[in-house]
């Protein structure tokens, strides 16, 4: 059997993804959750995990240094990289939405939208026929309308608590987001049997989790 290298996102998604892999029958060490190691090999399963920033997972997979990866649909939509989406893992659910101060309209001369997702935001407003200036931020996006940097934000909503506690309201839902198993297209061809087996087992585990 040959090794499969999987790029896993550190942070929010990691634990749920690991749980799903275990539910799919992979025998993975429990220490993986607390470890600071960035490369973890599991010889008994012929698996190698690389632990990356969520936004970087598709980079490793596109370049083929990882055969597979787990990435949020938000990251995939934003980056449009050449990776194959194999399974909707139905974990880390959230959605992408526009938000802003209550009862406001966008500035009609020079509307500004703050976001960590410039491609998603540009596409959304373009499809509505609205030309906006995108202001790219790296986090705490909700600050932007509060201090007058932007009329709207495009960001992830999960519980809605961040919006609420900062006096913002949601305007439009853009897309539902869950994490996906993605593959490098060449790996998919070369290691087809192993990758298809993993995709099948994960799909089954997803089904069982839903029940
Ligand atoms: N409330 C949420 N906020 C942000 N991301 C969420 C949320 N719920 C689920 N997700 C999913 O988790 C991913 C983000 O994970 P995480 O928050 O660990 O990293 P990050 O914010 O991108 O990175 P970092 O905080 O390390 O810069 C998103 O890509 C999305 O798919
Ligand atoms: O609807 P909620 O449950 O409140 O979750 C949504 C918030 O969580 C994310 O931020 P994150 O915690 O990743 O911090 P960030 O601002 O650094 O991106 C997202 O950008 C929202 O701000």
UniProtKB/TrEMBL annotation:
Keywords assigned: Amino-acid biosynthesis, ATP-binding, Cytoplasm, Glycosyltransferase, Histidine biosynthesis, Nucleotide-binding, Transferase
Function: Catalyzes the condensation of ATP and 5-phosphoribose 1-diphosphate to form N'-(5'-phosphoribosyl)-ATP (PR-ATP). Has a crucial role in the pathway because the rate of histidine biosynthesis seems to be controlled primarily by regulation of HisG enzymatic activity.
Cell compartment(s), UniProt: Cytoplasm
Pathway annotation from the record: Amino-acid biosynthesis; L-histidine biosynthesis; L-histidine from 5-phospho-alpha-D-ribose 1-diphosphate: step 1/9
Main location: cytoplasm
CDD domains: PBP2_HisGs (cd13595)
Molecular function per GO: ATP binding; ATP phosphoribosyltransferase activity
InterPro entries, sorted: ATP_PRibTrfase_cat, ATP_PRibTrfase_CS, ATP_PRibTrfase_HisG, ATP_PRibTrfase_HisG_short
Name this protein carries in UniProt: ATP phosphoribosyltransferase
Species name: Chryseomicrobium excrementi
